[in-house]
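Can anyone check this?
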Amino acid sequence: MLAALSLQAQIRGSEIQVLVQPNHQDWTYKTGEKATFAVSVLKSGTLLDNVSIDLAAGPEMYQDVKRQIVLKDGTMKLSGTMKQPGFYRVDVTAHVDGKDYKGACGAAFSPDRLLPSTLLPKDFSDFWKDAIREARQTPLEPTKRLLPERCTKDVNVYEVSFYNIRWGSRTYGILCVPVKEGKYPALLRVPGAGVRPYGGDIYTASQGAITLEIGIHGIPVTMEQGVYDDLHNGALSGYWEFGMDDRDKSYYKHVIIGCIRALDYIEDYTPWNGKECGVTGSSQGGFLSLATAGLDKRITFYAPVHAALCDHTNSLKGIACGWPHYFYSNKGKGMDKQIETSRYYDGVNFARLITDKQHGWFSFGYNDDVVPPTTAWATYNTVIGPKEISPYQATWHFWFQEQWDEWENWLLKQMNIR
């Protein structure tokens, strides 16, 4: 059995590679300029003859060129352009020995000029101020349980919980605190979509910070994986669509309030230094980073990575929209209530509240087919405060090691740890 596990651990990559390469190293063009793409299908690092491919090209999520081609020598070139700011995406699927292999390239056309389509409701700020004020009428009444098996010589690790939006509604998380007595900067980690347990950010805490990683579903975050699988496939299946016809019933209302109350917990029940306080997450967590920073000025730095739930209404104009693509397939027909509700849960509108005293770091991939870079750039362009952008063009809905390292180093720098 050990031999089998050892062999399994050595599996890396694929012998077949599908490359789609633009003729600009930064994958960026001006509107009206022509982008040229080189498509290559490789086996063992060399071009594969007579390979069948499916090709799709055009504005992302609205590709208008679709062809089936046999590449006699394993390669081809094509070109594309855009008259308006956005992303021109080329997807290639190669069929080899009964299996499919994919490659893609999303070329940016004047992305610094992208603007969001979502409208800001006149009472957006008041709605959220009232929701936070109402939630704070319920005391946190926190719980705290040491997890000795996770502690290190430098970090104590706890499962904590506290009341969220009302009595009986709790948020659970993993709190990591340096063992050495003192006051520390704080980092709130907010989760991507799904239902799962959490391990806590022990590494960042070991560098000299308080970290709190929260779940969003009001359940403990240290149970067996099977419990979360059952919830994901059962009661919480598609939770991101729950209550989307009423801004007060949206599932994300208690999720966002939970992030704010997590900051209340950090302030009242941890040795926070009262100065540096950040929030970060990817995908859904990127959205929650924007929401937390926009609503709470205790946040001094924030780092959204491929932030989801941004610019929902783009698809009503035939432009790439953010996950979960609420109005993409139905074009918003008969969904006036959902469209109005979506504006209260759009990352762009929270980004509009971020101030010049909050420092942001944005990162995402140009090949992301879950969170379109169109929405990521438009959200970034919306922010008026100090900000940095670091795209890793070749990533899809994941990150490279180098991207992760830059992300972590930036967070530590903001906390004056590195």
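Reply from J.R.: I decoded it. The longest strand covers residues 86-96.
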